[in-house]
């Protein structure tokens, strides 16, 4: 009976070992298909090809809407904007400017988004960036994020803006700060040309900043910030096609490639561990079997 049990156990271990070898070969084939061409996944590239210049076009589109709404001859009056001093009471705004115009401009901007069936949440995220250029004189004494939230809340209360309320409920201070940095980088990067080496140092700094930012998006993170960072990646790569900057990367790291690498590496590592343990157990049991036969 013991001999039979050992025999069955060895068969099971052999099956496990063969299964391990099969899965290792399978994962190796998948890995080679997905991560050829300098680890740049062609499936990902094809899937996201439509995103090229999306970040740039959205930035310009919402900036155009904001500039129209911010023109002095276009500013309208709204009842909920009548007392801006009271609205911003308790908020550090000594370093801000033109706050008497902030509420009507932001109100008109959001109304414009709603009337033109634009993505209100998306437009409001870009709005935070435009407010920096319009209303800040001294950053240290102008809490623009608190003012931004207050203005959105005032609009929502006056107009029952459900989409705006949804945005307010999910505002993350850290993400908004990162979005501001990303938009600053975007604006400065695309205002330059890279056909000679005069701006190459800035392009290098831009790529290094991106590589730091994208780390927050590893692990299948789904956030507006990460999605916009992916869009920026494709804009950057499109811009750098004509660049003449030795030592500056033309291709930036893709969060999806890292995610898929983890997706492949972790199962393969697990299978290797199982195979190793199976091999050791097989050897141990074979030795026991031999000793048993001898005795």
DSSP summary: helix tally:
13
The radius of gyration over CA amounts to 29 Å
Low-confidence regions:
31-52, 257-265
Give the ordered list of helices and strands. Answer: HHHHHHHHHHHHH
Cα separation of the termini = 16 Å
Biggest sheet layout: none
How many strands? 0
Strand content: under 5%
Helix/strand-derived class? Answer: mainly alpha
Helix content: over 70%
Average pLDDT, rounded to a whole number, is 72
Taken from the alpha-carbon principal axes, the silhouette is globular
Protein name: Variable surface protein
Keywords: Membrane, Transmembrane, Transmembrane helix
Transmembrane segments: 6-35, 262-281
Organism: Plasmodium vivax North Korean
Describe this structure in words.
Keywords: Membrane, Transmembrane, Transmembrane helix. The chain is mostly helical. Among the domains are: 2-41 and 255-294; 54-171, no CATH class. It is 71% helix and 0% strand. It contains 13 helices and no strands. It starts with a helix and ends with a helix. The model is unreliable at 31-52 and 257-265 (pLDDT under 50).
């Amino acid at each position: 009976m013991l001999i039979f049990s050992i025999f069955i156990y060895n068969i099971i271990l052999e099956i496990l070992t063969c299964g391990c070898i099969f899965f290792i070969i399978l994962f190796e084939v998948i890995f080679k298909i997905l991560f050829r061409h300098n680890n740049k996944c062609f499936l990902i590239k094809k899937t996201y090809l439509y995103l090229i210049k999306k970040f740039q076009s959205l930035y310009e589109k919402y900036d155009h809407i904001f500039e129209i709404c911010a023109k002095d001859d276009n500013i309208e009056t709204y009842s909920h904007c009548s007392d801006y001093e009271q609205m911003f009471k308790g908020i550090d705004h000594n370093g801000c400017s033109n706050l008497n115009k902030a509420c009507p401009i932001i109100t008109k901007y959001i109304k414009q988004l709603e009337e033109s069936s634009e993505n209100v949440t998306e437009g409001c995220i870009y709005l935070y960036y435009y407010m920096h250029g319009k209303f800040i004189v001294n950053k240290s004494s102008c809490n623009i994020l608190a003012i931004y939230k207050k203005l959105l809340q005032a609009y929502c209360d006056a107009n029952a803006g459900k989409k705006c309320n949804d945005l307010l409920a999910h505002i993350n201070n850290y993400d908004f700060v990162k979005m501001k940095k990303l938009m600053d980088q975007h604006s400065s990067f695309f205002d330059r040309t890279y056909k000679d080496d005069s701006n190459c140092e800035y392009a290098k700094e831009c790529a290094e900043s991106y590589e730091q930012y994208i780390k927050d998006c590893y692990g299948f993170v789904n956030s507006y910030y990460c999605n916009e960072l992916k869009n920026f990646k494709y804009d950057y790569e499109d811009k750098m096609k004509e660049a003449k900057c030795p030592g500056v990367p033309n291709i930036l790291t893709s969060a999806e490639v890292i995610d898929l690498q983890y997706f492949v590496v972790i199962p393969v590592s697990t299978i290797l561990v199982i195979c190793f343990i199976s091999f050791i157990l097989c050897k141990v049991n074979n030795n026991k079997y031999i000793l048993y036969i001898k005795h």
